[in-house]
Design brief:
Elements (H helix, E strand, L loop, with lengths): L1 H4 L4 E3 L14 E5 L2 E6 L2 E8 L6 E3 L2 E3 L5 H7 L1 H5 L2 E3 L10 E7 L8 E7 L2 E8 L3
Antiparallel strand pairs: 1-2, 2-3, 3-4, 4-10, 5-6, 7-8, 8-9, 9-10
Amino acid sequence: MNSKFGQPDSIVENYDHCQHLFDDEYELVYRGGLKFHLKNDSIIAESIKLNEGIRLIYNDLLFDKETTLQEFSILFTQAFERREVVDIDDYPYGNNLTLLKFKENMDALDYVICFFFKDGKLFYVARLFPC
């Protein structure tokens, strides 16, 4: 963790939430808008707030805070057609957010990758397990 991202902003122990990515004890680590589950030498991203300088790259696609909902509508037609308007109660991100959800894989029954848009721009990505 430290060699790739530097020192965490904070570490939460005994985190009680309906979702967890490891079957036993782990640490929840925050760093500059990123939230990870850390156990020994394994780390899994839970959520990413797309602040200045934060980018996600997948194959030839680049997602950052300038990525628009319109771009997603062209790239991911089916997900765009199933979009939802939601509020995030436990974060100060506001109301009337547009949410596009993707199954983690075709066989996945639980985890989804959620892309949240505010005012038409991507600002938050999370790997979520519905409670």
